[in-house]
Amino acid sequence: MAGSETRMLLLGAVAMFEPINGYQIRRELVSWEVDKWAHLNPGSIYNGLATLTRQGHLVRHDLVDAGREVAVYEATTKGRAELFQLMIRALEEVDPYNRLAFHTAFGMLPLLDRKQVLHSLEVRRTALERTLDEFPSPRDAGPEYGPPHAFRGLMLWRDAVATELAWLKSTLRDIGSGALKFEQFEDWGWQPPADDPGWQMNIDREKYRALLGR
After folding, report:
1. Burial of 5 (0-12, 13-18, 19+ CB in 10 A)
2. Which of 24, 102, 122, 192 could staple 196 via S-S, CB 3.0–4.6 A?
3. Using CA atoms, how far apart are residues 166 and 118, in angstroms rounded to an integer?
4. How far is CA 102 from the centre of its chain?
5. Per-residue pLDDT tens over the stretch 143-171
6. Distances (CA, A) of 209 to 28, 169, 206
7. 197-211 in b/e burial notation, b at 16+ Cβ within 10 A?
8. What pTM, to 2 d.p., does this model score?
9. Which pLDDT tens digit goes with each residue over 64-108?
């Protein structure tokens, strides 16, 4: 299977909506436009689910729903542990040249509790501050950093770290104060529009639970 971001996306989508069928997982991830920012080809989602099932991270239930066979997925204990490790690493580790893993994990914050999120983002804040200090400042331009245009490009990377650091400090304040809500049982003050497929997914989830004897 592709990189850890793909594993995180598939495990996270199942963990958030389980029990869920393969088509619903694909539709949900496509709605996140994963083909644009996560480089996940929608056509490879089913192969990824099959791989995670073989590895014991997911369990597949073959159900009959209104006379139609449907494959429904749930995360195993092993899969949840793998997802937790992937998310924590993505939230805490800083790569100033690649934020894909962080964006992936941040989009699935409801899978973590507030205490864990605050801790991991504080770890990231410290790492961002250290990373920013490791970059030269604009006044350090000199031949050791290559030609002027190369140094200007380096400043773009530095400014991106500085921008993320300012964003993260604001995000931490909002999480700490309760202004930013994300935990599963909080009232976010938001709900999907009436035509969102998620409403039908909720109905199907309860139906699958009943079929599974839950």
Report:
1. buried
2. 192
3. 16
4. 7
5. 777 788 999 999 999 999 999 999 999 99
6. 19, 41, 5
7. ebeebeebbeebeee
8. 0.91
9. 988 889 999 999 999 999 999 999 999 999 999 999 999 999 999
Omega before 19 within 30 of 0, i.e. cis:
yes
d(CA 19, CA 25): 10
The candidate with the shortest Cα–Cα distance to 82, out of 111, 107, 117, is 111
Cα–Cα distance measured from residue 190 to residue 43, given in angstroms and rounded to the nearest whole number: 31
Residue 28 · residue 17 · CB < 8 Å: yes
Query: How many Å apart are CA 23 and CA 2, to the nearest integer?
Result: 20
Give the CA distances from residue 8 to residues 106, 158, 203, in Å, rounded to whole numbers and listed in that order: 11, 28, 25
The contacts of residue 175 (CB under 8 Å, 6+ apart) are 114, 117, 118, 121, 182
Extract the tokens encoding 32.
């996140």
